[in-house]
From TrEMBL:
HAMAP family in the cross-refs: FumaraseC (MF_00743)
Gene Ontology process terms (BP): fumarate metabolic process; malate metabolic process; tricarboxylic acid cycle
Domain Fumarate lyase N-terminal: 24-357
Lyase in keyword set: yes
Record's protein name: fumarate hydratase
Enzyme Commission identifier(s): 4.2.1.2
Origin: domain of life: Eukaryota
Domain Fumarase C C-terminal: 423-475
Family: Belongs to the class-II fumarase/aspartase family. Fumarase subfamily.
Keywords: Lyase
Organism encoding this protein: Euphydryas editha (Edith's checkerspot)
Amino acid sequence: MACTVCLNDENKPVKMRKERDTFGELDVPDDKLYGAQTVRSVMNFPIGGIEERMPYPVIVAFGILKKAAAKVNIEFGLDKKLADAIMQACDDVISGKLYREGHFPLVIWQTGSGTQSNMNTNEVIANRAIQILGGKLGSKDPVHPNDHVNKSQSSNDTYPTAMHIAVAMELRDRLMPGLVALRDTLDGKAKEFDKIIKIGRTHLMDAVPLTLGQEFSGYATQLTYGIERICSTLPRLHYLALGGTAVGTGLNTRIGFAEKCAKEIGTLTGIPFESAPNKFEALACHDAMVEVSGALNTVAVSLMKIANDIRLLASGPRCGLAELMLPENEPGSSIMPGKVNPTQCEALTMIAAQVMGNHVACTIGGSNGHFELNVFKPMIVANVLRSIRLIGDGCQAFNKNCAVGIQANVKQINKIMRESLMLVTALNPHIGYDKAAQIAKTAHKEGGTLKDTAIKLGILTAEQFDQWVKPEDMLGPK
């Protein structure tokens, strides 16, 4: 079978050029900007195909950090003409143009330091800069991928830097809009349903009343705390490893390079990045990533609870609880005419399960930092980014297609309320727990109402029952 890098979209052979790395010479497709090291990685790690490509946000982040490094390196001897060409090439990476054109074919499953993706980026930027300067593609002249694009850097500090940039940007741009929108909708529903009294449930069994608004206020608060948990991870996420080079000592870099680069990356992204105060920690472990993943995992737990509650409360429409009415978006069955299912709830709970699985992988990866370098980097960042994308998109879809259209079925809520035996709890202060329990158990056994049973047993009069058992008086201290 022919190597996929040697074929174009029509599965036809393409013109090749020769490029060389320290292992020797290789054929490189002439319509691609990557070089020999990228081709070598494609050959050595044919794992998963296009579905397992290095995530797009990581490549964008590489473009940002390489642009910042080029600008700062002018102060440390990099020829301005070369630096300007490198920065222009970086803009093509940041825009996504070169990713879409297939110049970043490498997969997640490569070296655990992400070295091949760092070199893929260096080769693409170098060759694009050579094009800009009118040179020969693959010549490494006048721009060299290692000597110029990777100046004062190592894969060991650039990849973790790209991880932090990518995740910070995606949290801001992909996760928070969806999470905040859903939280705000649920908060609005809490206010809308504030006067609707319904029966509560504990252990899945009937309990005392609360308002539907109070129930929804719990959901909104869960997401508020989830947002706060995500935000609390940001100070560590904003620390960048750049400047640590190979093992954290900063070999082959210059004093001030790390700090200047972090400031420039902050300018390019609008995020307050800082140079990590301890580069040994920044290279050898990814506790900050595990922390972010943990916060995402907690949000997933919240979403699982919220979506399950909503679909259970909406179960029916005739033979379930049916306290809520959800928007009807599509047919629910290929055999049962008229059936409509809570599909948005189902999608969100599947997302929650996947995020929990992603966190397990991140936890294992984070715990396996050995000596001066953690080598689970691509897997960790890919899972964190996937969780961000799934939660962000999932919350947007759930909000738009379900949450905003939720209605209370007041008639059904009142019917269930009248039938509840746990209203008997209101009698505890008046007749004691044991007599109240006798009324409830007898009513349940005989299929009667609380009121009729209390009168039959001679424990209460009708007037006493009506005075003491009022759902609106059972909502807590006044």
